[in-house]
């Protein structure tokens, strides 16, 4: 299959490109910089220059592909409204090209806010509805395109898709621990995060592209609920610094923007995903990755 991948040079995107190529697919990756283009070419992918605001490149990539994997996002935490706007316009553009073709469209999503008092499941609809909501409400937007002949599938990633070299949320929390000389968790540290190794996440993206029926919600979750105090303890052990509680009112000051998320319950299960697609995560767990030095760069 010829697959167009946005975010192809990113953390999850790079692993996904490798996974798709290893499975025999032809990959066209969107690249906004010379460095990204060079990295994609070295992996064996075809390069299409452009970014999320270059709608013509998005149209071309989708039109010439047999399937689309949309992983790119601006992730502008200082201006989330702009990230949400760009994401919604990009999804409108890509699904518009794919309409009526029954070609697969795999969209990246998250597990935040799915349920209260229990881990979220694949049956829980996304609460993000409309252009002003997180990610521009694109999960619901994409799934609505099923009625227009798009085989839309969402892959909801755990809040930490970890591995050696990850620069995501756990790297930012680790950097805060290094900066302050203490590894913090918010309040009593009982809020829980799910987690998945990047290699397992990439494999699930491929399975979703190849096999998932239209309208499916897949959970890239290997570990359902890791208490934030355990994450803080693993970081403290790795850095050799003490562990402390950070009051919720001071979380953003201590951690930066990630303080808001570190104090949120973001647990999710993947029982349906595992059963339906025979997906068994094999990568190391988050705490093992931290202890092994996966975040020594942070």
Automatic annotation (TrEMBL):
Sequence ranges assigned to domain NAD-dependent epimerase/dehydratase in this UniProt record: 3-212
Superkingdom as given in the UniProt entry: Bacteria
Pfam family, one: Epimerase
Alphabetical list of InterPro entries matching this protein: Epimerase_deHydtase, NAD(P)-bd_dom_sf, NAD(P)-dependent_oxidoreduct
Renumbered residue ranges of the record's region Disordered: 117-139
Protein name per its UniProtKB record: SDR family oxidoreductase
Species lineage: Bacteria, Bacillati, Actinomycetota, Actinomycetes, Pseudonocardiales
